[in-house]
Amino acid sequence: MSPLNIALSSEFVRPTNAQIGAKLQADQDAGCTYLCGNSLGLMSKRSKTLVEEELDIWGTRAVVGHFSHPLNRPWVEYIDNLTPLMAEVVGANEKEVVVMATLTSNLHLMMDSFYKPTPERFKILCEAKAFPSDQYAFTSQALAHGLDPKEAILELSPREGEYTLREEDILRILQEQGSSIALVLFSGVQYYTGQLFPMEIITKKAKEQGCICGWDLAHAVGNVPLKLHDWDVDFAVWCTYKYLNSGPGGIAGLFMHEKWNSIERPKFAGWWGHELATRFKMPPTFSPINGAQGFQQSNPSVLALASLLGSLEVLKEVGMMEPIRERSLQLTGALEKLLMGSKYYVSPSDVSQKYEKSGSTAPGFTIITPTEPSCRGAQLSLLILPMGSGLMQKVFDSLVSYGVIGDERQPDVIRLAPAPLYNTLIDCENAAKFLELAIDLL
């Protein structure tokens, strides 16, 4: 059997066809074709075990579990089990990362520290159609500083007829308007198109122009190799329930480069950010942990930490991000080849001629994710044609009936993400086969 057919770990629980409502699948007990790890990763058996252990300890030790833990994971220090693993995932020193809170709350904390607009330098540079939560955060931060978001937020859009941003266009804007840009904040991987931005290059250019550079890594962490410390990134935030498989609403993460430790101290102090040695002595004066962990505010959910720890341990066993990336490139490349072989596939360069100019109503699809493997992660975004026809939802519903779980983005996009920890070539083959059958039904 091809190595692409063998998942790197058998520790993940996959819903069956019956459980996800795949009515057109004869084998209802078989695992579904799950290609939605870019939205919510599958549960690892390790995570389930660790969570159940903490539930048992909660029941048998109650509050004593904070300090006396039969498995040597006292809750007050539980985060120490995750910090070195998370630091390795994002390419950071341990003091530069912390597992805490949620993505958007962490984004606000970091923007409050690093977005310091002046009359001359006040703009936030980002991609157009960033994830809505980011857009809301940008707007609210601009308003909090008394700025008009329409003037403060500089959004970059792809060129006409294109779906993704060009590197040279980002660098050109930084060169031309860098003196007015206070903060550069892109997604590591764009959630809608799946484009992987050249983070190192953008960060370097931003710093040359005197800008602060941060990253939303929600779709990049656990997906592509990162070197936040070496790239001189100022800060980054991420969630962990996608490619890090921590569970719905799982705890998030934060990075702050160590060069800022003595400059950007936590402004919104909380007792969990206080140094551990005196935290439980309840001193009246806040003494923050040095580095990113000083930004903690409340004690984290141990159940959420346990769930994330299980998945990170699986990731560590397979060698972390380099082998994950190698397998990801293989799987995503295989899926792309299969999709491009479909009778319904339309090249991006032909979409305008076939649909916009000729007015064709024939169903089809194109792939709006970059074809260059180095410019994408483990996701292919399919634009269902003709645009605005309402066919996407019909195709998506049919895919579910065939046991294929992807992710729909209104009005016309279906995202398919072969997560390298648990997806296989068979998943890719099923997705391509059933997509064609789904369009046949239209």
TrEMBL record:
Its main location: cytoplasm. Its EC number is 3.7.1.3. Residues 84-342 form the Aminotransferase class V domain. InterPro entries: Aminotrans_V_dom, Kynureninase, PyrdxlP-dep_Trfase, PyrdxlP-dep_Trfase_major, PyrdxlP-dep_Trfase_small. One of its GO terms (molecular function) is kynureninase activity. Pathway: Amino-acid degradation; L-kynurenine degradation; L-alanine and anthranilate from L-kynurenine: step 1/1; Cofactor biosynthesis; NAD(+) biosynthesis; quinolinate from L-kynurenine: step 2/3. GO terms for cellular component: cytoplasm. Gene3D superfamilies: Aspartate Aminotransferase, domain 1 (3.90.1150.10), Type I PLP-dependent aspartate aminotransferase-like (Major domain) (3.40.640.10). Pyridoxal 5'-phosphate binds at residues 103-104, 131-134, 187, 216, 219, 241, 271, 299. Catalyzes the cleavage of L-kynurenine (L-Kyn) and L-3-hydroxykynurenine (L-3OHKyn) into anthranilic acid (AA) and 3-hydroxyanthranilic acid (3-OHAA), respectively. This is Kynureninase.
